[in-house]
């Protein structure tokens, strides 16, 4: 029969996986880093996945296709759920899951890390932009009494001057930022799992530069609060792109899901890039 069905242009797909999340019938999977239609019978032709593609790789067309099979979809979804349950049990036993909220008694950061939690008027949480136009001034010392200009010009062990910080705003903790901050206007966002900046040596140069940086740990924090905060940011501002950096450990997937769910909740799909960094500091996936 001839009916509406999707076609995926693989040359346009960036492998972000947003369409996989928006397809409630499980018709799309990532294969070799590209979205693929698993079978015609799983596609209902309603096009929910179209809004989940930031690159326009998915198109609705009319072609000869097997009819949509709801029973097959239900069976497929049940099998997928069953296949995921043992893995989840193993990860729980190993303490490697982190997609959900952590308790304070467990390993979480505690109640003050929740969305909208009070920060007690701490001046350290005040929003600010960081300008880097002026060099260090000779004669101005740091807390240890070292001349700031001398410290800035001191060569490293390799004989080169230390790389400058590329951070352009404060605060950077996702739970501490105010979604109304004007620096989110027309911003390129970096959403970074906490450990990535420590694992990857050139993190400032390759990721923080020219981006507004937000960090968090899906293992220790409430990822629901992450999703809500990011949804507020995307709803209130014209964000130009999002780059997510995560570690190659299972619990780090929570920060990826928070970003994707926020884009869907805000009905704002922006250019998206996901970078996975190994515990040895090597970029594993771009």
Account of the 3D structure:
- With 286 residues, the protein is of the alpha/beta class.
- The protein has 2 domains: 93 residues, Alpha-Beta Plaits, CATH 3.30.70; 139 residues, Rossmann fold (3-Layer(aba) Sandwich).
- Helix content is 26%, strand content 19%.
- The strands form 4 sheets. The chain has a 5-stranded mixed sheet with strand order 8-7-9-10-11. The chain has a two-stranded antiparallel ribbon with strand order 1-4.
- Helix 6 runs parallel beside helix 7.
- It is elongated.
- The two termini are 40 Å apart.
- 29% of the residues are buried.
Explain briefly what this protein structure is.
The protein is of the alpha/beta class. The protein has two domains: 2-94, Alpha-Beta Plaits (2-Layer Sandwich); 98-115 and 166-286, 3-Layer(aba) Sandwich (Rossmann fold), CATH 3.40.50. Helices cover 26% and strands 19% of the residues.
Label this structure with key terms.
alpha/beta; two-stranded antiparallel sheet; five-stranded mixed beta sheet; Rossmann fold; about 290 residues; 2 domains; single chain; Alpha-Beta Plaits; 7 helices
Report the span from N to C terminus.
Answer: 40 Å
The arrangement of helices and strands along the chain is EHEEEHEHEEHHEHEHEE
Q: Please give the domain count.
A: 2
Largest sheet: 5 strands, mixed
Radius of gyration: 22 Å
Number of helices: 7
Shape: elongated
Approximately what portion of the residues adopt beta-strand conformation?
15-25%
| Helix content percent band | 25-40%
What is the name of the CATH topology of the largest domain?
A: Rossmann fold
The CATH architecture of the largest domain can be named as 3-Layer(aba) Sandwich
- Count every beta strand, where a strand is a DSSP E run of 2 or more residues: 11
Task: State the CATH class of the largest domain.
Answer: Alpha Beta
Low-confidence sequence ranges: 86-120, 134-144
Q: Which structural class do you get from the secondary structure elements?
A: alpha/beta
Global mean pLDDT: 79
- The strand line-up of the biggest sheet is 8-7-9-10-11
């Amino acid at each position: 029969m001839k009916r509406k069905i999707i076609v995926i242009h693989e040359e346009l797909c960036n492998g972000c996986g947003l369409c996989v999340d928006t397809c409630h019938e499980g018709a799309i999977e990532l294969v070799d880093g590209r979205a693929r239609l698993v079978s015609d019978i799983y596609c209902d032709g309603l096009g929910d996945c179209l809004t989940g593609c930031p690159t326009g790789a998915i198109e609705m067309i009319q072609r000869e296709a097997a009819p949509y099979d709801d029973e097959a979809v239900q069976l497929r979804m049940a099998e997928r759920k069953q296949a995921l349950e043992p893995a989840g049990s193993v990860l729980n036993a190993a303490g490697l899951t982190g997609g959900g909220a952590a308790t304070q008694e467990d390993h979480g950061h505690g109640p003050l890390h929740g969305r909208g939690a009070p920060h007690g008027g701490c001046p350290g949480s005040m929003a600010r932009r960081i300008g880097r136009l002026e060099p260090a001034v000779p004669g101005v010392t740091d807390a240890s009494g070292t001349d700031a200009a001398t410290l800035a010009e001191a060569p490293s062990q390799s004989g080169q001057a230390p790389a400058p910080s590329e951070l352009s705003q404060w605060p950077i903790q996702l739970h501490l930022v105010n979604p109304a901050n004007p620096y989110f206007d027309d911003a390129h966002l970096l959403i970074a799992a906490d450990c990535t900046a420590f694992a990857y040596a050139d993190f400032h140069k390759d990721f923080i530069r020219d981006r507004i940086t937000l960090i968090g740990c899906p293992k220790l924090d409430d990822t629901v609060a992450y999703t809500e905060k990011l949804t507020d940011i995307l709803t209130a501002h014209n964000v130009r792109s999002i780059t997510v950096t995560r570690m190659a450990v299972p619990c780090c997937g929570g920060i990826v899901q928070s970003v994707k769910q926020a884009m869907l909740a805000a009905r704002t799909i922006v250019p998206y890039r996901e970078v996975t960094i190994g515990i040895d500091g090597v970029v594993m996936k771009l």
